[in-house]
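Input.
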Amino acid sequence: MNKILAIGLKDLRLIFRDPAALLLMLLAPYLITLGLGFVSGAFADDGESGIRDIPVMLINQDTGDLGGQLVQVFESDDLAELIEVVPAIAIPEGRDLVNEDEVVAMVIIPADFSGIMIPDPETGETVEGSQLEIYRSPASPISVSVVEAIVSQFMSQVDSGTTLVGVTIDQLVESGDFDVSTFQSVATDLVANQSESEPLINVNASSGAVDEEEDNFNILSVLAPGMALFFLMYTVTLGGSSILRERTEGTLDRMQTTPTTSGQILGGKVMGIFLTGIAQVGILVIGSSLMYGIQWGDWLGVIALIISAALAATSWGLLIAGAARTQEQVAGIGTAVMLVFGAISGTFTQINNSFINSLGAITPNQWALQGFTKLGLGQTFTDVLPNIGALWLMAAVVFTIAALLFRRKFSQ
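Output.
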């Protein structure tokens, strides 16, 4: 393990001594984020974020109480500056407004929304029904992510209430005090009380003390991680290319003449790429906090996402290096993958095509960016665990494929 770490640290030092690499790894993301910040209004003289008054249409068809509670969340004073609730109209006309980007998103709450969230009085299980729909504008991916985060946190609270109802049913049945006739109203009250027990959405949460006038959602908290993750793919491709270069130059062969196994050598090279990725994103996160005043949120979640994103991206860098035959091929394929991943993950803009959008799930960019967005909106480490898990699963699968390719390559 000491040899693997030593090789990794050596590669890390070499990368940070390369001016051209530093230009693309660190300076370019900073400058692009800065430019996008000016375009978006994040550096406006009034100190307010460029994201405000997001037009959202709410179609509440629910005959119960939960749909009304979700509407109240969007109409609450806490979100008054962030969300502008547009008067509801017919769904087809509402979709037209979204397609024209006059409305960022239309939230359609189905008629049986409350019913499917309340457990069955006999089985204690919820029933299947219509799903809540968010019809979103392809031209406003950042604003859409804010709307989705609000709905997601509301649903998380409701799920907690549903679990509480199920436990309560079991306890009442065991005690013999369960009355089916009064179940519906009691269950609704339990779910409602649980969803109101704490704030349903906290947009202004931050990891440090800030002045109240500046405590607003900052669009740069989405733009900065997007750029960091985009250029992370360049970094891991550069690392994968170095493996082929050292093989061509005979460096790997000379290393094998020392008391070092081929597994330790390759492991050290992988460690170098991984450490470089962590260093790159970590520096960008810390630097953007100091330069742009970005509040990243729960730092435990931020650190976990940085490590997980670097691990998943490293696996893709190794896969590219394992599939390519020359350094030139690595550079070409790596650039293409970097651009494609940036496009389908929503880093630049969201494509209004469900198939292409679903392809974003194969990218570390999408999972990590969604996680950083959640943290920037005030959610915590536990809320980004699905994103972290997806990144580790991706890393395991892609690493396995890359290892097989490298085994075949080095056996030739």
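The chain has two domains: 2-40+217-411, 54-204.
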